[in-house]
Specification:
- By secondary structure, the chain is an alpha/beta fold.
- The protein has a domain of 170 residues: 3-Layer(aba) Sandwich (Rossmann fold), CATH 3.40.50.
- The chain has 7 helices and 13 strands.
- A 6-stranded mixed β-sheet has the order 7-6-5-8-9-10, with helices on both faces. A 4-stranded antiparallel β-sheet has the order 4-11-1-13, with no helix packed on it. The protein has a 3-stranded antiparallel β-sheet with strand order 3-2-12, with no helix packed on it.
- Helix 5 links the parallel strand 8 and strand 9.
- The longest helix is centred in the first third of the chain and has 22 residues.
- The chain starts with a helix and ends in an 8-residue tail after the last strand.
Length: 285
């Protein structure tokens, strides 16, 4: 009798396992939810905060997808500030202004190029630690750059943000030297930027060369590229960037069963006079 009971129990176990296996989702046909962070501005550069899902169309790899959810982005931002001032110290006050706009809303790291990136403070929300770092952005004597340091610093910041698994990553470059237009590793750096999910924002002085990373990076990542001739215009540019980050949206959409993700994204709005600051390339995994 004990043997019969044992065989019965084994049979029941096998039947139950079969039922569970048939009910489990097939990974090859599971839906994929994708997430996009973006901002919207009007013709005057002011944030637009009342968009609805009906105002938007989204395509991935050229195929239209339905918006699943749209809401204001929440959670702490992670911002890497890269200061490339050639040792002149004129970004101290503007960086202090930007930090003041973002403090308590973001974990901020500040690095200066000297000529390679040197971190003054790691990611923190502590106002005192951030202020102490800003005060180190003083005139330090002329520092010669080779045209690649600032682009390589973008890759360095992107890899760091990816390692941190940052949910709202941002890279802000402030440069007085620019980037070599013949940079051969631009493709690799833009690939690092895409993989991190960070939006790249670049504020540069008039007349500097912008290579592939600094010119294309903001466009493909949903950031802002702007020139600034003096302290007031730098401050205005940073105010616009801060406002766009404060008013970010979070959008999600679902890929149909069995559809492979594609890294080309096209997000548009039917609202007249509204411009979207949205990534054109997203991580395809």
């Amino acid at each position: 009798m004990a043997c019969i009971l044992t065989r019965s129990a084994l049979a029941a176990t096998l039947v139950l396992a079969t039922i569970r296996a048939s009910a489990a989702p097939d990974p090859a046909h599971a839906e994929t939810m994708r997430r996009v962070l973006f901002s919207a501005i009007d013709a005057g550069g002011l944030p637009v905060t009342d968009l609805t899902a009906g105002d938007l169309t989204i395509k991935e790899g050229g195929r239209e997808r339905a918006v699943a959810t749209l809401r204001p982005a929440t959670g702490v931002l992670q911002i890497s500030i890269l200061v490339d001032d050639a040792g002149q110290g004129f970004y101290e006050a503007p960086v202090g202004y930007f930090v003041g706009r973002m403090v308590l809303r973001a974990e901020i790291a500040i690095s200066m190029l000297n000529p390679q990136p040197f971190k003054l403070v790691d990611y923190t929300t502590d106002p005192r630690a951030l202020l102490a770092a800003v005060k180190k952005l003083i005139q330090r004597g002329r520092i010669e750059q080779d045209g690649q340091q600032v682009a390589e610093a973008v890759a360095w910041a992107a890899r760091e943000l990816r390692k941190r698994e940052a949910r709202r990553p941002v890279i802000l470059v402030m440069t007085a030297t620019g980037e070599s237009g013949t940079l051969e590793i631009g493709d690799f750096i833009l690939r690092d930027l895409k993989a991190s999910g960070a939006s790249l924002h670049v504020v540069h002085v008039n007349g500097v060369d912008l290579g592939r990373v600094l010119s294309e990076g903001p466009k493909v990542s949903g950031g802002i590229l702007t020139n600034a001739a003096n302290t007031d215009s730098v401050r205005d540019a940073l105010a616009r960037i801060a406002a766009s980050l404060h008013s970010q949206y979070e959008l999600t959409y679902v890929l149909p069963d069995g559809t492979r993700p594609n890294d080309w994204l096209q997000l548009q709005t039917t609202r007249r006079g509204v411009r979207l600051l949205a990534p054109q390339r997203i991580a395809d995994n």
